[in-house]
Design goal:
200 residues; alpha/beta; 31% helix
Length: 200
């Protein structure tokens, strides 16, 4: 593929992502907070009883904000089961997120986008991670994921992209599932997507 064709493809994919983000946000906005809360609880329950979660020794997850699937119950269960827990933490000097260890009872402080993150910066060893729980805006049955557009999660997941011992599991509502999601070489695919109705 020549440079001109590659740039044209990248531009097309970028435009398709913008359009799909607009559609995905409108779909979520049309859902009531109560409906999303109930659906999110179903998603969390599915994960809590899954073999991937029950067998995990080190789980990396996120703190849900806005209309994302909440992970409060998963975070509490991970600590109760003695798992090592890691959370995304923003490093302003590098303008990117890293997974940082979060001990039970450890303080959380608002990050730059208001997302809670560990107050103490204790970098996690992602090579030991068994399970990563991931948010997003839209997903396909093939594991394609659309984020909010900053590329932060793809950079965060890059170290576990080819780690065979680590499962990448997205938490989503069924209304976020699409026939296909435009992707490029830097996008990290999910191994599974768990919604309130199904697992893909």
């Amino acid at each position: 593929m020549n440079t001109v064709t590659h740039r044209a493809d990248e531009a097309r994919i970028a435009n398709e992502k913008v359009a799909l983000r607009r559609t995905a946000r409108a779909t979520l906005a049309a859902c009531t907070a109560e409906a999303l809360r109930a659906a999110g609880e179903c998603v969390a329950q599915r994960v809590l009883v899954s073999a991937a979660f029950l067998s995990a020794r080190h789980v990396a997850l996120y703190i849900g904000v806005g209309r994302e699937v909440r992970t409060d119950a998963l975070l509490a269960a991970a600590h109760e089961n003695g798992m090592r827990v890691s959370l995304p933490t923003w490093v302003a000097a590098e303008k990117r997120y890293y997974f940082v260890q979060h001990a039970e009872g450890g303080a959380l402080v608002p990050g730059p986008l208001g997302i809670p993150q560990p107050e103490r910066f204790d970098l996690a060893d992602v090579d030991t991670c068994d399970l990563v729980l991931v948010p997003g805006l839209a997903f396909s049955r093939d594991g394609e994921r659309l984020g909010h557009g900053g590329g932060h999660y793809d950079r965060l997941l890059a170290p576990v992209r080819d780690l065979a011992s680590c499962q990448r599991v997205a938490l989503a509502y069924d209304c976020q599932m699409c026939e296909s999601v435009p992707t490029n070489a830097t996008d990290v695919l999910m191994d599974r997507i768990v919604t309130e109705k199904n697992e893909y």
